[in-house]
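Quick review question:
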C-alpha cells in the first residue's frame, strides 16, 4: 500500500505510456481520416508533439475558453508566439498550459518547467480571468518571479504556485515546500482573493503557529495552506493525517470558504470527528473526506470511506447547498451503499463510487458505478443545477451509457462522462468517449451554462476529430483529450439488478428519445485532444 501512495499519477502515466505503446503497435488499425461525428457544428482535434503527453485537469475561463494543463516530454510540443516558455526545459517531463477558444482555435500554449521533472496538477481562474496553476517540480531552475514567497528550490520536489495573465504573461510564481517531497493538489480563492490549496508532503518545518497541526504527524501527511493574494505571505499551513501515509489529492471550498478535501490514507488513526460516517479504517487504504475551517485551526468534519479493499478519493465537489460530493474508485465489494443507483459491485478490479454528504456530514447517498470489468473515476464536477458529472475510464462493455456520443465500448479502455441527478439515483446521460485503443478521462469542469469539459489521454489512432481541426492526425504514441459537453435536462428512470443498471430515457411524455450531438477535439501522436460532446433535446 505504501508504494501505491507514492504519487498515483506519475506511476499511472508511466504504466499507461507503456501500455499505450503496446496497444498502438499491436491493436490499433492504421490511421484513417476521422469524420465529424457530431450532428452540430463543433470541433475535435489532436494536440501535441511526437512523445506521449498527459493531461491532468481542465477549466473554463471567464470568456468561455478552455484551459488545459498537463505535462509533456516532447521537444516539439505546439507552442504559440506569446508563450511564457517556448522551449523544452529538460528532464523527464515539462508542464504545459494551453488555451483554446470556443471554436477550437489555439490561443495560447506554453511549456512550464526547468531542467528537472514537472507535473501540473490543478488549474483555476481568478476574478481577473488569470490562470492560476499548482503542481510539483524537481527543477531548481523552475521559473519564479522577483516577488516570490520562496524563490529557492528546497527539496527533492517542491510544490509551485503560478499565476498567468490572460495574454500569457507571467504574473507570479513561487516554490512551496521544504527539504523533502511536496505536491500541491487543488487551488481555490477566498473572499479576499487569497490562494487556498492543499496536497501532501513529507517535509518538516512548514506548519504555522495556531494551525490544526503545526508539526508532521507521521509518514507522509496531507496539508492545507493559504497564501496572501499578493503572494507575499504564508498565512496558514497545517499538516493533516495519522501515523501512516496520507495523501490529499483534491479540494474544493464551501460558501464559508472552508476546505473540503478528499484523498486516501493508510493510517489507522487518521483524525475523524464525532458522528463520522465511518470512524475506523477497514483496509490497508481508505478514502477520506475532511472539512477544515478557513482559518485552518479546526476540524469541522472528517470520515473514512471504504470497505474490505483499497478505496481512493480522487474527486470532490461542493454544491450550492454546501453538500459535499466525493468520488473515486474502489476495489471493495462491501461499501455501505445508501439510496444507490447501483447497489452492488459490478465486477473487475475496481468500480467507480459516488457519495454525497450534507454540510454536517450526513450521508445522502452512496452508489457504485461500473460494469463487469474495471472502472475508474479521476474527477467530478457539479453543474448549476447541482447535477453531478463524473469523468473517468472503463473497460466494461456494460457500463451504463446512453444518449451520448457512443453507447458501445470502442476500445480496450474508453473514457466516460456520466451525469447524475442530484439524488444520485438517476443517470441523466452517460457516454463512452474514444476510439479502438485505450482512452482515459482524467479531468472535468463545468461552466455557468452547464457546459462540461472533460480532459484525458488517448492512444487511439481513430479518435474522432473534425474536418479542419487544429491537428487532424495522431502525432505520437498517445494523445491527451479534453471534452466540452453540454447536457440537456433528460428525465431518466433507473432500475438496478445485481450487477447491471439499465436505464430508460424519456422526453417527459414517457416516450424514448434518441438525441446526441457531440463536439470533439481529437488527439495527435502525443497530443492533447479537445472534445465537445453536446447532448441536445430532439426537436
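Suggested answer, residue by residue:
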Amino acid at each position: 500500500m505504501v508504494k501505491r501512495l507514492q504519487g498515483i499519477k506519475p506511476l499511472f502515466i508511466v504504466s499507461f505510456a507503456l501500455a499505450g505503446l503496446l496497444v498502438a503497435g499491436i491493436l490499433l488499425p492504421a490511421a484513417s481520416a476521422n469524420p465529424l461525428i457530431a450532428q452540430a457544428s463543433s470541433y475535435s482535434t489532436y494536440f501535441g508533439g511526437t512523445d506521449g503527453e498527459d493531461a491532468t485537469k481542465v477549466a473554463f475561463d471567464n470568456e468561455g475558453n478552455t484551459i488545459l494543463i498537463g505535462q509533456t516530454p516532447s521537444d516539439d510540443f505546439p507552442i504559440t508566439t506569446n508563450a511564457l516558455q517556448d522551449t523544452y526545459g529538460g528532464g523527464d517531463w515539462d508542464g504545459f498550459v494551453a488555451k483554446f477558444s470556443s471554436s477550437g482555435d489555439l490561443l495560447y500554449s506554453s511549456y512550464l518547467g526547468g531542467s528537472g521533472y514537472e507535473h501540473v496538477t490543478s488549474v483555476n481562474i481568478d476574478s481577473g480571468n488569470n490562470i492560476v496553476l499548482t503542481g510539483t517540480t524537481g527543477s531548481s531552475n523552475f521559473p519564479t518571479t522577483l516577488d516570490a514567497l520562496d524563490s529557492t528550490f528546497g527539496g527533492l520536489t517542491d510544490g509551485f504556485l503560478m499565476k498567468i495573465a490572460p495574454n500569457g504573461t507571467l504574473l507570479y510564481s513561487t516554490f512551496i515546500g521544504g527539504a523533502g517531497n511536496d505536491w500541491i493538489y487543488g487551488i481555490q480563492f477566498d473572499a479576499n482573493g487569497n490562494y487556498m490549496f492543499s496536497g501532501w508532503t513529507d517535509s518538516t518545518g512548514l506548519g504555522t503557529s495556531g494551525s490544526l497541526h503545526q508539526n508532521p504527524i507521521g509518514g507522509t501527511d496531507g496539508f492545507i495552506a493559504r497564501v496572501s493574494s499578493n503572494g507575499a505571505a504564508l498565512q496558514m499551513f497545517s499538516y493533516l493525517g495519522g501515523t501512516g501515509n496520507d495523501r490529499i489529492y483534491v479540494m474544493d471550498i464551501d460558501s464559508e470558504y472552508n476546505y473540503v478535501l478528499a484523498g486516501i490514507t493508510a493510517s489507522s488513526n487518521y483524525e475523524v470527528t464525532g458522528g463520522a460516517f465511518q470512524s475506523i479504517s477497514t483496509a490497508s487504504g481508505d478514502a477520506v473526506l475532511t472539512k477544515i475551517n478557513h482559518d485552518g485551526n479546526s476540524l469541522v468534519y472528517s470520515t473514512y470511506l471504504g470497505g474490505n479493499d483499497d478505496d481512493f478519493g480522487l474527486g470532490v465537489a461542493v454544491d450550492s447547498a454546501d453538500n459535499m460530493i466525493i468520488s473515486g474508485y474502489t476495489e471493495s465489494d462491501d461499501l455501505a451503499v445508501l439510496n444507490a443507483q447501483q447497489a452492488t459491485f459490478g465486477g473487475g478490479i475496481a468500480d467507480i463510487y459516488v457519495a454525497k454528504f450534507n454540510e454536517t456530514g450526513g450521508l445522502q447517498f452512496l452508489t457504485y458505478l461500473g460494469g463487469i470489468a474495471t472502472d475508474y473515476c479521476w474527477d467530478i464536477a457539479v453543474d448549476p443545477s447541482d447535477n453531478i458529472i463524473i469523468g473517468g475510464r472503463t473497460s466494461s462493455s456494460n457500463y451504463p451509457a446512453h444518449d451520448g456520443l457512443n453507447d458501445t465500448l470502442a476500445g480496450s479502455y474508453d473514457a466516460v462522462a456520466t451525469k447524475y441527478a442530484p439524488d444520485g439515483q438517476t443517470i441523466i446521460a452517460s457516454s463512452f468517449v474514444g476510439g479502438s485503443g485505450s482512452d482515459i478521462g482524467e479531468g472535468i469542469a463545468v461552466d455557468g451554462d452547464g457546459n462540461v469539459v472533460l480532459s484525458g489521454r488517448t492512444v487511439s489512432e481513430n479518435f474522432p476529430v473534425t474536418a479542419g481541426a487544429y491537428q487532424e492526425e495522431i502525432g505520437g504514441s498517445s494523445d491527451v483529450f479534453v471534452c466540452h459537453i453540454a447536457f440537456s435536462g433528460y428525465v431518466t428512470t433507473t432500475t438496478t439488478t445485481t450487477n447491471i443498471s439499465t436505464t430508460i430515457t424519456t422526453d417527459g411524455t414517457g416516450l424514448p428519445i434518441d438525441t446526441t450531438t457531440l463536439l470533439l477535439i481529437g488527439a495527435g501522436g502525443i497530443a492533447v485532444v479537445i472534445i465537445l460532446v453536446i447532448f441536445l433535446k430532439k426537436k
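Why it works: Confidence is low (pLDDT under 50) at residues 1-41, 489-539. The helical segments are 8-26.
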